[in-house]
Amino acid sequence: MDNNKPIGIFDSGIGGTSIWAEIHQLLPDEKTIYLADSKNAPYGQKSKAEIIALSCKNTEFLLNMDCKLIVVACNTATTNAIQELRAKYNVPFIGIEPAIKPAATHSKTQTIGILATQGTLNSELFNKNVEKFHNTKIVEQVGHGLVQLIEKGEINSPEMTKLLRSYLNPMIEANIDYLVLGCSHYPYLIPQIKKILPEHIHIIDSGEAVARQTQNVLKEKVGLSNIKNREPLFYTNSDPKVLSEILGNKYEVIEKDF
Ligand code: DGL
Hints:
- It is a single chain.
- The protein is built from eleven helices and ten strands.
- By secondary structure, it is of the alpha/beta class.
- The strands form two sheets. Strands 4-3-1-2-9-10 form a six-stranded parallel beta sheet, sandwiched between helices. A four-stranded parallel beta sheet has the order 6-5-7-8.
- Helix 1 packs across helix 10.
- The protein starts with 6 loop residues before the first strand and ends with a strand.
- About 45% of the residues are buried.
- It binds D-glutamic acid.
- D-glutamic acid binds next to helix 3.
- The site of D-glutamic acid has 17 residues, from helix 3.
């Protein structure tokens, strides 16, 4: 295994860049290739079979670019397809799942909220995980429409505020003290969400944990890069402008059909 091969990261769109940013911060010497399948976003309402097929397509693109490890930076793809990916391809996969454990462990009201896609909340993997926390009341909410707005670059639109209020107000009424963001697009909504939630409600996502897990797997199984400060590559199969903007217009985004 060549330690200096890139890490491949994919998502249904631009949201997984929140995970990419954590990985790039923790492991700046690793070459990263980010794939935004925005043409097929959102994955959240697709069938398991469709999500598996799209995840295989993205994985094959990244394996053709010689990636040494794949990060599935999408809760929907992880909870619906990671078992199939691991069975089919001979490369380590890191997935992202809603951080129920830290929220349930620390909750004082024993009530937590989770905002995620339909695909994640309906998945077997997610529901098996939820069963472990039967002492905690979990208020589940599908974030209908949120990913579509983020993909259009409308993070701060009045429509976004309206949707978020309608999803979060029932959770506030149910007395949650933790909100779990179960979709890699949602960390971009944290400033908006903070305006709606009372201060005592903690917001958690899984980005940092995924970066740490990536570091551990590289150390234990694959090997860390020994080349310094490597520039990431970004690919999208849709309008590159939105991806470029979410990255602060700091990186070149390559438009390619895949
Ligand atoms: N960013 C994705 C996730 O973490 C998927 C959103 C979607 O495409 O519906 O679930």
